[in-house]
Amino acid sequence: MSAGPVPSGEPILTVEELRVSFATEEGVVQAVDGVTLDLKPGEVLAVVGESGSGKSVTAMTVMGLTRSPNARFEGTAHYKGSELINAPEEELRRVRGAEIAMIFQDPMTSLNPVMKIGDQIVEQIQEHEALPDQQARERAIELLEKVGIPRARERIDNYPFEFSGGMRQRVMIALALSCDPSVLIADEPTTALDVTIQAQILLRMRELRDETGAAVILVTHDLGVVADIADRIAVMYAGRIVEHGTLDEIFYDPQHPYTWGLLGSIARIDRPRPERLPAIPGLPPSLANRPEGCHFRPRCPHEFSKCIEVPPLEARLEGNPDHRDRCWLNPEQKKQLREVRPGEIGLAAKSTGVDAA
């Protein structure tokens, strides 16, 4: 299960107490609420959670892609010492694509449908580097070959609609890597791809990470993808990080009831087929009208009186300061309440008698 040792060294990207809100007709939507995380060179950090949990907004805000008249920002994001959240647009244009690149969720709508793929890659290269047309074109061909596009020298003059979904995603990866970025943000890079193509895309991302040393933020809801590539995991719910730890810590010793539910909903091929796949009860809350205290409280089978207060994200396991969670239950209570099997965490039935953490 482990993706390898967590890379050491100083973080290349640090996000502290990031808050992002949008003024809408329904009221103020708090999309991101106090997110703090860091990313080391060569590391893969997975940000997981249901749709609407704030994963993509967090990533896009770091890139400066959520700026609008109705958006409000608090907190900081430092890349190699430079602050990004309040940076001038000119500075962000210098960083985007060259230093921090993004693979967007839907390559069909992210690629320009009326431009040849080669022209799109060349345009990005020449935006950041003063290369002649032919030299930039040769680099684009080399990138397409590296991500597994067959007959790249011929297909560089094709339009996006002439590629399959998996091939378009490979083109997006080539585009993102065209200027050798230090940080690669992949937003649901395997969505709508069949499992064979998913495996090929993940293998290619791992190889490129190993070859270039780029750090990766993987935004996804697919825990199968996470298990295959991540070093560390940040679990988000309703705009907050509710648990943070290494791959093995999250999969084998999860501490938050929401994480238990996510892992418990995964079908196992090495277990008897259940009559009904476990599911987290209820629906995610409206970010314009979030529950008081712990946002997961209305859906949690272990709710008790203290849950109306906001739990801090902190380490609760003795001797493990890097595994943090946002739950008032103490580790012994969690151990008693959850059902634990090797590699399988199920959400226990409604607990009773929990009066204090």
What does this entry look like structurally?
With 357 residues, the chain is α/β, with parallel strands linked by helices. Helix content is 30%, strand content 22%. It contains twelve helices and 14 strands. The protein has helices spanning 55-62, 89-95, 107-110, 117-128, 133-146, 152-155, 165-176, 195-212, 223-229, 247-252, 257-264, 331-337, and strands at 13-24, 27-39, 44-48, 71-79, 82-83, 100-103, 183-187, 215-220, 232-237, 240-246, 314-315, 324-325, 339-341, 344-346. The protein has an eight-stranded mixed beta sheet with strand order 6-7-8-3-9-10-12-11, sandwiched between helices. The protein has a four-stranded antiparallel beta sheet with strand order 2-1-4-5, with helices on one face. Helix 4 (117-128) crosses helix 5 (133-146) and helix 5 (133-146) crosses helix 7. The longest helix has 18 residues, at 195-212. The protein is globular and about 65 Å long. The two termini are 31 Å apart. The model is unreliable at 1-6 and 340-353 (pLDDT under 50).
What is the compact description of this entry?
With 357 residues, this protein is an alpha/beta fold.
SSE-based structural type: alpha/beta
What gyration radius follows from the Cα positions, in whole Å?
21 Å
Helicity level, as a percent range? 25-40%
Q: How many strand segments?
A: 14
End-to-end separation? 31 Å
Sheet with most strands: strand arrangement: 6-7-8-3-9-10-12-11
Give me the strand/helix succession.
EEEHEEHEHHHHHEHEHEEHHEEHEE
Shape: globular
Mean pLDDT: 87
What fraction strand? 15-25%
